[in-house]
Amino acid sequence: MKSIRVHIAIIVAVLGVVAAALSLPARSSTRSTPPRISSGHAPPRDASTFAAAASRNTTLRNELKWAFGGKQQRGWYLYDLLIGKTLNTQHDTTTSDFAAALAAWQKKMRLSADGVLDEDSLMRMVSQWQSNRLKNRAYAMPDQLLEAPPADFYDPGRAAELRQVERNTYAAYKEMFAAADKDLKLAPGHLKIISSFRSRAYQDRLRQQSPNSGRAGLAVNSPHFTGRALDIYVGGSPVDTKDSNRAIQVNTQAYRWLVRNAERFGFRPYFYEPWHWEYVR
Question: Which of 19, 71, 115, 155 falls 20 to 30 Å from 233 in CA-CA distance?
Fold first, then answer.
């Protein structure tokens, strides 16, 4: 009997150990997850964080008052495409996602990263765009220029001396035009050259004829002197700086293609004139 009682006691003990072991997962599952140790970095903000900024941008896009070239400007809607390219985003400029992309750029520029495209941020962009333009404004020498055929010009009747283009610029333009025509099947006249090399004498005559045209239209140190600046037809009235005309131009297929692709061929824009592109290589 004593042996039987010992065996029973052993069995009971073993069963107790097994039961205790089986109960451990259930108990551990009820324990709360230990708090994560902070890495010291704030979690990234998602697009919803920038709802207020998006609302503000919706207003500023049309209403922001700023100045360029001595002229008062209103809004930045004419530069939506260039702004999106600068931020590397295709989001609509009135969305929270756009505001988030803008905030990331503002942070890199050491601006207030609030996602609002105010005057400070816009002028920093303008400065960046202007710094990307042609830096060498040396006057073109005759052996650097070639006479482009009339068929390359918006006005085929343009005088021969006004159809001169710097040689490398012309070669790059022809490549760019062919690529755009392949992609878009360009309408007649689109991306044809309006104006290329302009001599100082010719520029002086223009200035005398239009004394009130302002710096933007008849620059004293025009990049056209280099033969590396091209005015290209993108739609609308060819070289009219009225906002109503530029609003047409920046929404044409030809202009949108240039914003996306011209840099591949060495061309950079003058942001204020949708038709003006400069070969910077």
Answer: 71
